[in-house]
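Issue: ligand-bound run for zinc ion - logging full I/O for the record.

Environment: standard queue, default settings, no custom constraints.

Inputs:
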Amino acid sequence: MHTSSIHLTSGHAASALCPVCGGSEIRISTSIEVHYDVVFEATARDFLVVDEVLGDAMWDADTPAACPRCRWRGTVGDLRRSREALPGYVC
Ligand SMILES: [Zn+2]
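Outputs:
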């Protein structure tokens, strides 16, 4: 499974997320599931990918998070206003 980082940025000061510096940009390390349709022919040496669907990136209170501004590291559950401010949050 591929792991990637997602940046969430908000232009509102009221959207402070970082519990240390109040920064509004955080980095969440999460992963997504990718579903592939593949074709295999007996004469071929590899599968041929004919379709792929990316799942949604989701996170919960235990997902690692970090602040690029002050280098704070913690979890999504440590963030200010995490439930209201973060699309994809799973209770
Ligand atoms: Zn910070």
